[in-house]
Amino acid sequence: MHRPAWSSRLIVNGVLVLTAVYFLFPVWWLLVSATKSNADLFSSNGFWFAEMNLIENIQAVFARDGGLYPIWFGNSVGYGLAAAIGATITSGACGYALAKFRFPGDKLIFGGVVAGLLIPGALLTVPLYLVAASVGATNTIWSIIIPSIISPFGVYLCRVYAEGAVPDEIIESARMDGAGELRIFGQITGRIMAPALATVGLFSFVGAWNGFMLPLIMLSDRSLYPVTLGLYAWQADKGAATYNLILAGSLLTVIPLVIGFFLMQRFLRTGLTLGSVKG
Predict the structure, then answer these.
(1) pLDDT per residue over 247-272, tens digit each?
(2) Please, are residues 37 and 49 in contact by the beta-carbon 8 Å criterion?
(3) Same domain, 57 and 81
(4) Residue 261's domain spans which residues?
């Protein structure tokens, strides 16, 4: 077997290292900045530590405004879990149906799903607000949860994955044994699609966790804010006086995402690779 030349491997590895540095550099800056006092943020090297104030900053974050930060953090967890569970169920069911059932308009529906991938989420915030306002759902958790459980990317991924990874013979055999469609999906094909479903769940959780535009438009009650919008509200209220607290709070918001990616990386890698290949 022909092996790539050492120069090609060097170039590829160099590009990978530069890419890793590009993405990790802001994380390093955030970690360093979260340990500083507000004065040190403006007087010390931005990429190296000064006096360690991380514990004090975190304590101040949790105490500010009567302890709103833990509420915001809990809201983000709730919104993220609701999005992950809801999007996993809806995307898995829709993707499986589009892959394994033939009905009038199935190609048109899948075309609409693909078209949905091309629409920026921010473009839909105003229409979603108008719909929510018409039914009195603004400033409620449902105005955040319901839009987040619909994922065109999730439907697309599950459809492609199911078409390539779920054998028709297994489905036909289960039907001959008397299993209903819900049982087949829940106990057989759903397990085969587990990597794709885990990928959809993780991406949906991250999307809801990082959500900003939709909560900004939908919510006015600060007790319903996710942590992203809460930190923005602090900056708008206090300006530069709270930079150290905002950075410490931002560092805390990264931790669940890092843990989630490490726990789910096996499913994520499998779901994205196998889902792109048919047969």
Answers:
(1) 999 999 998 888 888 887 776 666 55
(2) no
(3) no
(4) 22-62+237-268
